[in-house]
Amino acid sequence: xxxxxxxxxxxxxxxxxxxxxxxxxxxxxxxxxxxxxxxxxxxxxxxxxxxxxxxxxxxxxxxxxxxxxxxxxxxxxxxxxxxxxxxxxxxxxxxxxxxxxxxxxxxxxxxxxxxxxxxxxxxxxxxxxxxxxxxxxxxxxxxxxxxxxxxxxxxxxxxxxxxxxxxxxxxxxxxxxxxxxxxxxxxxxxxxxxxxx
Length: 197
Ligand SMILES: Cc1cc2nc3c(=O)[nH]c(=O)nc-3n(C[C@H](O)[C@H](O)[C@H](O)COP(=O)(O)O)c2cc1C
What we know:
two-stranded antiparallel sheet
């Protein structure tokens, strides 16, 4: 499996990136290797000018092209997602997420903006051709505590939701690989379980 994480916050003290780091830790524990892209590490001027010839943006595009699964994290900004993440998604090819399984992770100041994931982020992921856009994980700031060492403590229900999301992500990747191989029967590990998105 070729997994890529995308951190979509411009903040250097990012909650959503820390939740994403928890997801990456889960992947490590499961022995699932992954690569990381952070929009903060991409050249701001190239993003702002939509410079399709930027070597750094082309390299990030290539990493995504080869991915079978993507975990994408963003803060809610103005009832949607971050502008810098949109700038990055804008430079991807029209079908940049074709055939991929995508798990969104969103953090926000208010649970009232939880639906930003469904009405703002998910349509873009679908427009990019994602095969499965899974039900994502939303956490409000009050449910995420940052410890002194920079690590985070999640409220129990968020931690459980994150683990459930990651398990669904892993299951969906197995399904997706089966479908790509033209096999319609479920993978052996899920023969008795239905796919939960
Ligand atoms: C410019 C800006 C706009 C924001 N807009 C919203 C918003 O519309 N709704 C909301 O619930 N939170 C909003 N927030 C709060 C962030 O979504 C929240 O603190 C989030 O966890 C920050 O994630 P980050 O640390 O990864 O950037 C906003 C924060 C900033 C800086």
